[in-house]
């Protein structure tokens, strides 16, 4: 880490931090659900690249397809058949995807969706929700910080709202409202609805805890967007191909106008996808809205995506059932072991992705975190402490509370993880 800091700003990349400090673990290799660091220590991995590795580290089919394509040459800024093979596949799988385009990162795909919505509606303002993250570009700067008092934190929704006017051009037109709250949204839209170009949302909030939409919430969002002529964008960068083959929109059966995928679509190869109704995507087809990027549809990544979707279309039932079952066992097990020790804990979400945290106040309901503000009642410092002790016991988890499962996590992994959870809770927290 000391050597790294001399040339790499901060010594680690920005998302490898524990609390305010770099997390000084350097990894060498990964297979399935396991990772090894440079000192030879083995970890069960629930970070999974922050979501992409749905089929675990290095699934042979995906790696093989990617490598084979690499050797066919670096075909950039030129057509290749794999690209439309992948777009046909996404259209087949995702109900709203009449037309599709590919990029590299989720952030870029979000940028593309907002640009389309603004062009189609002739309106500038974009509405997003507190605690949701749509990439790190200025045009939709996020609201993530669990600590509203953190100095100079432009990520907090209040800070975002205040500073919104300081961004240049269209970036300034962002409104932030609480999520899972239809009355507040209705009130806002009754006054401003016809000035809003797009509502963008994670259909399940995964960047603050893992918060399911309240029953009827997504349907109500859909209706309000239709009523006011607003483009509804589902950002499925985390939920896509994870909560079901067709993402959260498949799981909840609500159709957005535009949608964004990244992460799991290629099990870790760099590719994102912007897709949606012809009415909007057609603007790209007609040359009215640009969609650029030197490395868009990078052939090895496209080949990796096709191999991933091949596996998910072929074995999807087993893949999703496995994650629901093992993730469910883990969620139940954490609750039981914490209860045994008398430690209040919140565990909520789904088998393939769930959230764990320690509440600072008494929690009655099983699902205690329902929006960004309620997430502030969780003890982040204690969780940071927990994460550090778990890593010492060979279980790697994200410091902010999300646990990602892959189809390769076994019952033995779950047993070992639950033993570590119990030991850490007993030794460091009880
Ligand atoms: N949207 C969501 C919901 C995300 O979680 C992320 C990344 N975590 C992004 C967009 C941005 O994707 P990327 O990091 O690939 O730019």
Automatic annotation (TrEMBL):
Keywords of this entry: Pyridoxal phosphate
Q: What PROSITE patterns would the database entry show?
A: AA_TRANSFER_CLASS_3 (PS00600)
Report which superkingdom the organism of origin falls in.
Answer: Bacteria
Which cofactors does the annotated protein need, by name? pyridoxal 5'-phosphate
Q: Pfam families recorded for this chain?
A: Aminotran_3 (PF00202)
**What are this entry's molecular-function GO terms?**
pyridoxal phosphate binding; transaminase activity
Note the InterPro entries from the entry: Aminotrans_3, Aminotrans_3_PPA_site, PyrdxlP-dep_Trfase, PyrdxlP-dep_Trfase_major, PyrdxlP-dep_Trfase_small
Family per UniProt? Answer: Belongs to the class-III pyridoxal-phosphate-dependent aminotransferase family.
| Annotated protein name in UniProt | Glutamate-1-semialdehyde 2,1-aminomutase
**Lineage in the entry?**
Bacteria, Pseudomonadati, Acidobacteriota, Terriglobia, Terriglobales
